[in-house]
Design a protein that fits this description.
Layout lengths: L1 H21 L4 H32 L4 H4 L13 H13 L19 H32 L6 H21 L7 H11 L4 H12 L6 H12 L4 H18 L1
Helix pairs in contact: 1-4, 2-4, 2-5, 2-6, 5-6, 5-7, 6-10, 7-8
Length: 245
């Protein structure tokens, strides 16, 4: 507990020092923007991980529930490195991060490890899109017409945007992202030989862990290509405009 407290104190000091050094003008405005983005990220990741836990529990695996992960308490889902990444990326660009992976015992899942695992994986991005829809409709039809609630609308707009991007990012079919398990689950619905062989090949990518994703990010940065933007940008933009008008 003391170690966690020290970690968050260090993060807070880093945040304050960075803002004071880089922006000496409208410090309060910058702090407000950073705080909104961090809160929106925290909400999105908490809902995402809780949805994984809920789906696993509903499909017969109580592991996450027994470990206290079936909750909307963000502390239960925070990963120190993922939280630090939220802070750094929010300060330097558009925020992204991750929570602690939800523990799942595949053999306990209804429909088997592949289809059941695909449903558990899909629950995360689906929950982010559902949250974006609900918040977006409230922002668009309830908050926007009231001029005095402009800051509330801005915050809700940030929540919608971040939830959509996190959903689309996680649907990329590379391990350890959710899209990897979702694709395996979809292929398992087919009884054809090609689907089985393809799913086996995709499962083999798991031994590379996060290296594929990190490599993709590094290579695109070195080449000056916004490949991730090309992949998740168009669907994210389309969903945003569908919700927000």
């Amino acid at each position: 507990m003391d170690r966690d407290r020290r970690f968050w104190i260090i993060v807070g000091v880093f945040l304050l020092a960075y803002v004071l050094l880089r922006w000496q003008g409208n410090v309060l405005g910058i702090l407000a923007g950073v705080a909104m983005s961090l809160v929106a990220l925290l909400i999105a990741i908490t809902v995402h991980e809780c949805a994984h836990a809920w789906a696993a529990d509903s499909l017969g695996d109580p592991t996450a529930r027994m470990l206290g992960r079936l909750t909307l308490n963000p502390i239960a889902h925070l990963d120190p490195m993922g939280a630090l990444m939220m802070l750094v990326t929010t300060l330097t660009g558009f925020g992204i991060g991750w929570g602690k992976p939800v523990p799942v015992t595949p053999y306990r899942l209804k429909y088997g490890s592949r289809i059941g695992g695909g449903l558990v994986a899909l629950a995360g991005p689906a929950s982010n899109l559902a949250l974006a829809l609900v918040v977006g409709l409230v922002a668009r039809f309830v908050v926007l017409p009231i001029e005095s609630l402009a800051m509330v609308y801005y915050f809700l707009n940030v929540v919608v945007t971040i939830n959509i991007i996190i959903a689309m990012f996680n649907l990329i079919p590379l391990p350890p992202l959710d899209g990897h398990s979702v694709l395996v689950g979809l292929l398992s619905l087919s009884k054809s030989n090609w689907a089985y062989r393809l799913s086996q090949w995709i499962l083999g990518l798991r031994r590379f862990g996060s290296m594929l994703l990190i490599g993709l990010v590094i290579v695109t940065q070195l080449l000056g290509l916004n490949l991730l933007g090309w992949i998740i940008g168009p669907p994210s933009s389309a969903i945003y405009h569908l919700i927000m008008g």
